[in-house]
Specification:
With 557 residues, the chain is α+β, with helices and mostly antiparallel strands. The chain has three domains: 130 residues, C2 domain (Immunoglobulin-like, Sandwich), CATH 2.60.40; 136 residues, C2 domain (Immunoglobulin-like, Sandwich), CATH 2.60.40.150; 243 residues, 3-Layer(aba) Sandwich (Rossmann fold). The protein contains eleven helices and 26 strands. Strands 17, 18, 21, 22, 24, 25 and 26 form a seven-stranded mixed beta sheet that branches. A four-stranded antiparallel beta sheet has the order 4-1-8-7. A four-stranded antiparallel beta sheet has the order 3-2-5-6. Helix 6 links the parallel strand 17 and strand 18. The two termini are 36 Å apart.
Length: 557
Amino acid sequence: RGMATMGEVPEASPQASLAVLSKVELRVSCKHLLDRDTLNKSDPCVLLLMQSQGQWMEVDRSEVIKSNLNPVFAKIFTVDYYFEEVQKLRFEVYDSHGHAGVGTHDDDDFLGGMECTVGQIVAQKRVTKPLFLKYGKFAGKSTITVISEEISGNNGYVELSFRAKKLDDKDLFSKSDPFLEIYRIDDDRSEQLVYRTEVVKNNLSPIWEPFKVSLNSLCSCEEKRKLRCVVWDYDSRGKHDFIGEFFTTFEEMQKAMGENKVQWECMNPKYKLKKRNYKNSGVVVLLDLKIHRVYSFLDYIMGGCQIHFTVAIDFTASNGDPRNSCSLHYINPYQPNEYLKALVAVGEICQDYDSDKKFSALGFGARIPPKYEVSHDFAINFNPDNDECEGIQGVVESYQNCLPKIQLYGPTNVAPIISKVARVAADEERTKEASQYFILLILTDGVVTDMADTREAIVRASYLPMSIIIVGVGNADFTDMQILDGDDGVLRSPKGEPVLRDIVQFVPFREFKNASPTALAKCVLAEVPKQVVEYYSYKAFPPRCPQPPDANLGSPQ
């Protein structure tokens, strides 16, 4: 990730808009930087650092802008935004000497730094602060401005391919070295740099590399928002010569889809006033435009995707005799047990996303009537043809009714239930539609016995529209269960095959014993929106009733 010169500006990553978590785009500019060069002006580059466990870690860096004390950087920094955390950022500006390697800037001159939090930038949207040198000393009149924009889930990105023809020649002994800048004109009439192309050397009819920008970045998802496009002749000392400009909108650009092309006359207003026969300073052509929609969790939900909720309850003997008040399955009329608390906390959120409000409720690890054979995937309403209960209350009643009829036994095998839900999810996958996503909540009081089979079943399930939440009930040592939650590394099957997606979330209920039920639900369901979007993006399934990409991008969803 070495420093790029202005001719190799890193593009705005389209992946920035994929996030379900809030992601924030940061744009940086500086004014009145210190001049550290003897012959030319400073060649500034800005580094973004984030504090992690008390240490400053470099996150990303901008391009280097040659010979400029008032740079506007084209680089867009993207950071995750967590409302519940204080996220400290530090911006450091250096005069680059061009030979710094990745993560190093030892030979560069420090022009100043600024610290703030993501929250401050988001709350104010635009932060301008003085730059400080070491030991809190002001860096002259130097300031840094950071502008933030949240990347909404309802977003996409656009791929643009530009060329120009017959541009004015600004150089004496060779041809112009043109590059193109696109600015978005905001409501307050200020201009925001959206993208800067690479420089094409010695060419009056350049073809610039195709590039991608988010629709949010390009036009704030408003098709009619005005855009200003400027063509410059690059100068290594930073004094770029103005060739011409034109104004357009994303709405107009979209005429370039398919075989069509759109072109604009590149105008120099001074020449237009002075020269009687002036026609233009060249023509800029949009060769191609491709819109890529990136859908959010809400796009899928609003498109009619149902979240089907299945609960699986551990009825192994280690829970204790349900008639005994020490049992984890003891039914106290005044105080729900941990199984019921976890079931209600998670189920009450899931039920809002399921139109028929019917939930599958399964049990494992018990001997069941009539033959009292051990079963690892039985319906707790004892209806093998239909394991669904009416609403959360229906699940609670079925649970309470089944307890006196079964014998708690063992072992703690969960692979059969994962495979059972996976079979239904596999049928759903064959529809090739984003119509149903499955959440399996497993409530267990101990470490699973069939760990190898469970790992295999999870790897298989990671290719299907499903997520698994495991809540550990009681005071057992759940250390081995953390393996299933891929947070510590990638979960693999016994044969070494990795999961396609991280679909398992494990939490011990005791960590939430004294917290509100919403805290448990927030913790275990936090990953689900991301998992839903990851699955449908991987399968390239759009929402069932998506908004067409060329519809009004500004409308709220």
